[in-house]
Amino acid sequence: MDGYDFQRRANVATQAQKVSCILMIACAILLALTLGVWTGAPHVAAQGNRESGYCVIEQASGRVLYEYNKDARLEMASTTKIMTALVALETLDPDAQIRVDDRAIGVEGSSIYLRKNEIWTARDLLHGLMLRSGNDAAVALAIASCGSEEAFAVRMNETARKIGLEQTHFTNPHGLHDDEHYTTAYELAKLSAYAMSNPEFRAIVGAKVYKVAANETHPEHYFANKNKMLASFDGANGIKTGYTTHSGRCLVSAAERDGMQLIGVVLNCYDMWNQSAQMLENGFRNYRNVKLGEAGKALFRVGEGEHAAAVGLETDIVFPLRTDEDLDFRFTIRPHKGLRLPLAQGQEIGRVEISRENRLLFSAKLITMNAVNDAGVVLMLSNLCGNLHIENNGGEIEQIFSVERNRFPTRRG
Q1: H or E segment at 122?
Q2: Strand-pair category, 236-244 with 221-224
């Protein structure tokens, strides 16, 4: 055997060892993902030395299902436009006619190529904003809403405070780099959950394509959504991509299956599509929504005999439960003041508050399930609070209520 052949075989052996090692690592990762195992190590790829963050929450409860570095302050790029669209929808009629201001022309970055004095509806601009990530559309909407980008940014921050975002700050409506423009993965998920409760917003971000009709000021436009999750992930229904060289690749994704709506956020994640799909899939695999209360059914019955009254909910209250966990909640009934008899069937008489670990999760309308003409019923409800234990018995859910403060007999519906 000559020296060249020996070296060639040695190189082949070395390459085979490398391939074998890579395959072993890949199999280990695949096994971990299949089993739903999540460790403290990040599953997102940071660019350079910058941090990354991710978070998955269930929309109704806000429960965090998975997270890594969820509270790190990071740039959000064009996912900023989630707040832009939300504020625009709260200040503009979707059918309002907007004449494009000169300040919206030639904005850096992604564009729908607006021209000065074109007339667009707010709805059409919103689709250009969310499907094509038009920075010019963001500025046009900001000026139409508040008169300037600066005034609009003030409104964005006011809305952030209203939602309860404490580590989020906006300086512009499009997400181009600014040192004072930031959020966290958790707070962006929280904002997105809030925005997805708006039917108009939800319809816009869930659209795969959108057609803008021509008018005397501009031609017809077709917008194809940049969010690939809508076509590739089962149940996907939103919401926004983002990228700058400072932020890295960002994606807020959303999907609904079997009545459970999940919101996923990745910030500075090179493989954002696969990472987002993996996180959402794990959420659907390992959690399911459990009803803490069901619309139209008695939540409690107070009193006895002909004086008994049933109270219930207008809407379902659901909470994501892991397949292997039991949970405890706190409930409190808060009747409205000044209730007058008789109470009609279906009348709102107060609210039921449900909390967990000292955090309020739900505050839902409480209604009468039958007519009430007994003043004692209101007194009974005003003294009602206690604990709710959810027990998972091999997939069968049992609800156990215990009343801590009530001088009157109370029964679970």
Answers
A1: helix 122-131
A2: unpaired
Cα of first residue to Cα of last residue in the chain, in angstroms, is: 87
Buried b (16+ CB within 10 A) or exposed e, 304-332: eeeeebbbbbeebbbbbbeeeeebebbbb
Is 81 annotated as catalytic? yes
Do residues 53 and 74 make contact, with C-beta atoms less than 8 angstroms apart?
yes
Token pair of 368 as six digits: 């009468």
Q: Where are the extended beta strands (E) located within 178-316?
A: 209-212, 221-224, 236-244, 248-257, 260-267, 287-293, 298-302, 309-313
pLDDT, mean of residues 87-103:
97
Please state the rounded mean pLDDT for residues 185-198: 98
β-pairing, 298-302 vs 410-412, is: antiparallel
Cβ pair 30, 161 in contact under 8 A = no
Better pLDDT: 122 or 5: 122
Which residue has 């996907």 as its token pair?
236
For residue 270, with 0-12 CB atoms within 10 Å meaning exposed, 13-18 middle and 19 or more buried, which class applies? middle
Separation of alpha carbons 386 and 374, rounded Å: 23
Q: Is 355 among the catalytic positions? A: no
| Interatomic CA distance for residues 304 and 185, integer angstroms | 50
In angstroms, the CA 316 to CA 289 distance is 11
**What would the pLDDT profile of 372-409 be if each residue is shown by its tens digit?**
887 777 777 776 788 888 887 766 777 776 766 554 44
Select which of 52, 78, 145, 253 is catalytic.
78
Which among 133, 145, 192, 276 is annotated as catalytic?
133
Our measurement of the distance from residue 108's CA atom to the centroid of its chain's CA atoms, rounded to an integer in Å, reads 28
Give me 389's structure tokens: 């234990």
Higher pLDDT, 24 or 234: 234
pTM of the model: 0.82
Quick check: is 78 catalytic? Answer: yes
Q: How far is CA 161 from CA 6, 85, 170, 198, 248, in A?
A: 70, 17, 11, 18, 26
Instruction: Exactly one of 52, 70, 81, 276 is catalytic; name it.
Output: 81
Q: What is the DSSP string of 131-149?
A: HS--HHHHHHHHHHHHSSH
